Amino acid sequence: MHRYRELKVWQESASLAVEIAECVRNFPASERFGIPVQLKRASVSVASNIAEGAGSSSTLDFKSFLSVANGSLFEVDTQLEICFRIGLIDQKLHPALLGRVSYIGNMIFKFHQYIDNESNKSKYGNEGEELYQINLSLNFINDKSVAGSTFNEHQTDHLKHDTKSEY
Question: Are 122 and 112 within 8 A, CB to CB?
Fold first, then answer.
């Protein structure tokens, strides 16, 4: 089992869920059983699916859970926009929440991409390295550079072995 609590993407997702839960407490009582419930569930689903994926036994399952987490994040984005348009979220909070959603979405996308790259490397000659590399990535994902636009292949050099694969 991967240590999902060490994943920066999980930490950010869990924080977003808490922030959204606090935000919807301020919604009027007339909205109590409407969109706030959906918004809270979707935001909790992001962090939950990352955790469940980290606990899965295969890289394919992990990637699938990351995709579900990303879908839930799109739900959160849409619901935040609707809340803003109907006046439930103010003009100051709206861009801040959308910025967090975008940041997390970028992290999920790049983590998924990273897992794909490492998975493909193991298929073509780096025998048994796949899970080892994913495990090492737990520490790498904690680095904020993964969510930044400057992320590129050379930043993962410290995760690679000297083993050369032949195709």
Answer: no
Q: What is the dihedral of CA 133, 139, 140, 141, to 10 degrees?
A: 110
- For 59-85, the DSSP string reads HHHHHHHHHHHHHHHHHHHHHHHHHHH
Token pair 């994913």 is at which residue? 134
Query: Residue 26 phi/psi, 5° resolution?
Result: -85, -5
> Tens place of pLDDT for every residue, the chain, 167 residues?
568 999 999 999 999 999 999 999 989 988 888 999 999 999 999 999 999 999 998 999 999 999 999 999 999 999 999 999 999 999 999 999 999 999 999 999 999 999 888 777 666 555 444 544 554 455 455 444 444 433 333 333 323 333 332 32
Q: How far apart are the first and last CA of the chain?
A: 30
d(CA 20, CA 5): 19
Question: At 121, which amino acid appears?
Answer: K
Pick the closest to residue 88 from 29, 28, 40 (CA basis). Answer: 28
| Angstrom distance (rounded) from CA 66 to CA 9 | 10
